Amino acid sequence: MISETLTIVLAGGVGSRLAPLTQHRAKPAVPFGGKYRIIDFTLSNCLYSGLRRILVLTQYKSHSLHKHIRDGWSIFNPELSEYVTTVPPQQMHGEKWYGGTADAIYQNLYLLERSKAKYVVVLSGDHIYRMDYAAMLEGHINNNADLTIACMEVSKDEAKEFGVMQVDAHQQILDFAEKPDEPSELPNQPGRSLASMGVYIFKMSSLITALKGDAGREQSEHDFGKDIIPKLIANKRVFAHGFGGSQGRVSQDCYWRDVGTIDAYYQANMDLLKPVPPLDLYQEDWQIRTYEKQYPPARTVPGSSGNEGISINSITASGVVVAGACVQNSILFAKVRVEDEAMVNESVLLDRVVVGKNAQLRRCIIDKDVVIPAGTKIGFDKKTDAALFTISPDGVVVVPEGYVFEQAPSKQASRPIVSPNLNVTSERAVHAK
Fold first, then answer.
1. Domain span at residue 68?
2. Has 196 been labeled as part of a binding site?
3. Which single residue of 26, 125, 254, 364 has CA 20 to 30 Å from 188?
4. What is the C-alpha separation between 133 and 7, in angstroms, rounded?
5. Does residue 178 have a known ligand-binding role?
């Protein structure tokens, strides 16, 4: 059944609610968890589920995403009909970009038809979770379903942001509503609803028929949740597949997050720092694959003040150096440098961020290639921060990629951040001399 399955990953969304992290990159390409990109979770699920014929439909600001997939995911053998291929809009049906989730696939209908596959797995490239799609595919085939939708239980209030379904005793879906104002509740579970995860498995013939029918409707938004699924429920066999339980080979942590906002993204990163993280990244036969450059190991060293570098309950990627500073409850991506007597708390620092001497960061997301000048404080004065940066509803401050502060780093901040024999200095410090 796996060899008869084509997988399509939808990765073309704008991601405007995640700005400024999506200022120069697509949402699935946003870094996560110290070393990954968001799309790595979906692609890793495909890898371990045995799905190795994958089309990634891209669109907005896709260069970073294309590069990441090229560098990190060119691992399949095309001679065995295995591939991960990025597919930008090709204007196969008129001069337009992808106009909705269903339209994105409709515009590439010829790729589906020539694949000779019997089943199509449709996934989003911007969710954080681990799942064995093979178990869902097995259930889809056993039910002789035209469509199977992965679902999870959420609170009624949360359900307003999802597609919500009602099922019978055999898990056949009776009704589906996209982001309803008044979500239906589960029987015998007041306040709980059954929500779609945006993971679909179609019978190929049923999907092609549905897409062709939808393409001719002028009033359609060409969206799976709003247009395709409700019509299929009326006259086809559509089933729900519960997320978690005993299905599949992956350990069931039942963690799923749509990191579509700054606060959701920040909280999902912070979840990894809990004593027992709700998302298990350490299952040896289901590790998340990514592309990682070859940097030296992370380390803490004394600073020029004589203080020891300290990292407490934090994730530090390769190439990170904490020199006489304190890092606590934070995630530091590759080649981050934190200089003497600086403090970083509850923050996410992306690649190559430099935190100057005596600087203080609290509840921040600092995008890559930012140099924080000596003595700078971010996350302590909302009024001051709001004049310069984006602040989320929960008060997380986001400094955009490559931001240059008006205040130039002091001479003191230009000193090497570690002892000279380690030969590691700030690149800007070298140029300043």
1. 2-286
2. yes
3. 254
4. 10
5. yes
